[in-house]
Amino acid sequence: MTFACAHRGDSSLYRENTLEAIKSAIDKGADVVEIDVHLSSDGEVVVIHDPTLERLWGCAKQVKKLTWSEISPIRTDGYRIPLLREVLELFKGKSSLLMIDMEITEPAVPSVKVVLDSSLPLSQVTWCGNIEAMKLVRSASNEARIWMPWYSLDLPSQSDIEELRPEFLNFNYSLVTTETVQRVHQLGCKVSVWTIQDQPIMRWAAAIGVDSITSDYLESLQITLREEPCLYEGGPRALTEADLDLDAIERVAEILGAWSAMVTTHFDPGAMSFKTNAGDIVTRIDLLIETHVREVIHANFSGHNFVGEEFGGETMPDIPTWYLDPVDGTTNFANRMPWSSFSLALALDRKPLIGVVTHPWLSRVYSARVGKGAKCNGKKITLDGETGTQLSSRIVSTELDAYLPWEGMAQFLDELGKRYCTMRIMGSGTLTLLGVAANHSVGAVISNFSPIDHLAAVIIVSEAGGVVLNEQGKSDLFPVNGGVLCATKGVATELFEIWSSVKK
After folding, report:
1. CA 146 to chain centre
2. Contacts of 173 (CB under 8 A, 6+ apart)
């Protein structure tokens, strides 16, 4: 059974951390209700998340610099800030657990004292947050139920576990995979994840065996858990396009794109490893993203096939197939150069259907569904016709063939130079092609098309109004072999002629 944990109470419907939000979550049968605490200047344990009252209560002062008599009269939209001892009363005679979260150490011991002084059983309260605070909680109570925070892809040592004796390890969900859950269970602990807001990701977390999921959207989470989700393990199967819920698929792909951007920009790439040679590298973030994407797809859609940069796969006839490069431009990423991307596309029998590309360093998620147009962060995009009618003073991009120039690349540069057109090589084939749709360039050439790296980008370019050509000059979003050219309509013919003239 997976717990439904209401984040700061029923916070999608009521103001977070208020009595109304907490009571609503209890009444709806939340397994766990999470709240946050701070100390007032006179030592009262106040239920509030932020260190100041500014965001929700219109007062820029810090909680720790105000007395309870100064805090208690504050009202906004009929809500007020409660004390921990008031919240404890709501749980008496109820089945919900109370989770007391704290980001600093100061409230730890006073909070334990408030709980011990109440008539609520200590077994109905759990503790999480700052790890030093959890050590203080453990020192204050040998029976306290601790949910140990953990912020690393590397799991805690046995000695870490023995010191706190946690019931749960509490992760940001981005750090968790099926393997993580299994390894934590082997340590004798359960797994909690925060904070999941979308049903497809809730479904994934339950499917991989997570023991508690925290969300602002309690009812949505409860509905999802009643489905009893599981990972599809039946293998790829033949489906028609009519069998596919493309609205749901597009939504999941966009969610994964936004998630990948967050992971790429917030997590350190760590040490790089070599695959085929020193120019072909991988980081643990590449592996994490591909693992997560595959798991989410298999938790939400049955019978789909996968071809990924890190774990391989192959195209199969009559089977919807996903093509993924979790970090295109890994060399840039591993060297801390902010120019890499995420590429995810779905096709059926080489017919492209959906593409998502992220530019995490610009906080952009590009997406397209064939026949439905292209979007950036949910807003429709189209090519700028006025800036895409000539090569002079414009940019055309290309990429190396792996880590070497492609044959004819020097001549390609020369021919562009004769037209006062500048060439760019940035290190991500996905972003190179996408640049046409993003109005960053008027054209782009890739010498060797790969659906893993390039399919999503060419779908987006085409749906934004660009031209996509194979080496024979035919409109083609999924070339069987050879390279691919993307361009604005105004320069496509001229750029293709240049490309054709220099190829060997």
Report:
1. 27
2. 193, 194, 195, 196, 201, 205, 210, 213
List domains and CATH numbers for the chain: 3-226 (3.20.20.190), 241-381 (3.30.540.10), 385-502 (3.40.190.80)
Is 269 strand, coil or helix?
coil
Q: What pTM did the predictor assign?
A: 0.95
Residues in the chain with pLDDT < 70? 274, 278-280, 386-387, 504
Question: Does residue 127 contact residue 100 with C-beta atoms inside 8 Å?
Answer: yes
**Strand bridging mode 168-172 / 190-194:** parallel
Give residue 128's pLDDT. Answer: 97
Q: Where are the beta strands (DSSP E) in 208-261?
A: 212-215
pLDDT of residue 22: 98
Cα distance between residue 247 and residue 255, in whole Å? 12
Residue 346: closest CA among 254, 235, 484:
254
| DSSP result, 25-94 | HHHTT-SEEEEEEEE-TTS-EEE-SSSEEHHHHSEEEEGGGS-HHHHTT--BTTB-PPBHHHHHHHHTT-
